[in-house]
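= Protein in question =
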Amino acid sequence: MASYLVTYDLDSNDADYPDLFRAIESIGPNRHIQKSVWIVKSSSMSSSQVRDFLIKTVHADDSLIVVTVGSNWAAFNIDKEDSKWMTANIYS
């Protein structure tokens, strides 16, 4: 199962993007680790497929990045529960 970092800049005036959040959550096990950063796991989607699935929920002036994440990661000053989740769920 691959792990993906999903990050976005939501430039629309819509302050709420429930469809985007629901779409991310529907992909597989996930963690919302920063305001516009999620880690999501999928056994059936590539990074391009995750991107294509999510762009249906954002506006044309928003931006979205999906990156495959492996076991070689590092973080500073993040929530302890986020760190535990990442340690347990991100691997090659």
In short: Residues 1 and 43 are 4 Å apart (CA to CA). Residues 2-89 form a domain with the Alpha-Beta Plaits fold (CATH 3.30.70.240). Helices lie at 18-27, 47-54, 80-89.
